[in-house]
Amino acid sequence: MAPAADIVVDETKRLVGNMEGLDLLETLESMQRRLDALEQSAKLSEEKHIRAMMTLRRPIYKSPNSISRYRRNALVYGGSVLVDLDIVQFITDDASEFGVWSSGFEDIYGMPYSYGKLISHGSKMVALADARADLELLEAFEAYRQTYLPKCDAIIRLWKAAIDDGQDPEGIFRSPAAMDLYNRIMHSFNSVLSY
Questions:
Q1: Any idea what the Cα angle at residue 62 is, between residues 61 and 67, rounded to 5°?
Q2: Which of 2, 35, 104, 180 is the most buried (most CB within 10 A)?
Q3: Which H or E element spans position 152?
Q4: Which residues form a coiled coil (predicted)?
């Protein structure tokens, strides 16, 4: 047992212990306050980032038919499914805003938000969804739209069916036929981008 001289009483916090223990406790409390401040700052930064992305992407969701394709292309580059998923997730509490964005999401990416939110960052579906959106939205892909939109939609239907059947949706890319179709779409899409 420690000698009585080593015991310290901190009446302001109603703590009793040795000096090293009280110092350690104070350090932990200080670190917790700092961590809380950093978490709050990160949350605020994320919110500002999403609001900035909403501002940039709003023209393709709010008025897809009322502004010219040329003007829309100047404002926003086509598909960015991961950004759009973050935006729609962010606004789920605002029913009217959510309705506009989730409806636009389905028009652009060919799948409802309820399916889209299941896309993982490393999925081939990210590139396919972005390609589909570019085909749908951008003038540069107009010549490819009629050929490749149905092919993108075919893979998206397989992906959605796998989800509906309780299977791993990434499993569709293990099918040689689906993978071949995916590779052809992406090859053609990338060749247009390289011009």
A1: 95
A2: 104
A3: helix 142-164
A4: 21-48
State the Cα–Cα distance between residues 128 and 167, nearest whole angstrom: 19
Environment class of 108 (CB within 10 Å of its CB; exposed 0-12, middle 13-18, buried 19+): buried
DSSP, collapsed to helix, strand or coil, labels residue 38 as helix
- What amino acid is encoded at 188 in this protein? S
Distance of CA 153 to the CA centre of its chain: 21
* 131-185 tens-digit pLDDT: 999 888 887 788 888 999 999 999 999 999 999 999 999 999 999 999 999 999 9
Rounded-to-integer distance, Cα 168 and Cα 158, Å: 11
pLDDT tens for residues 72-118? 444 456 678 998 898 888 888 888 888 888 888 898 899 999 999 99
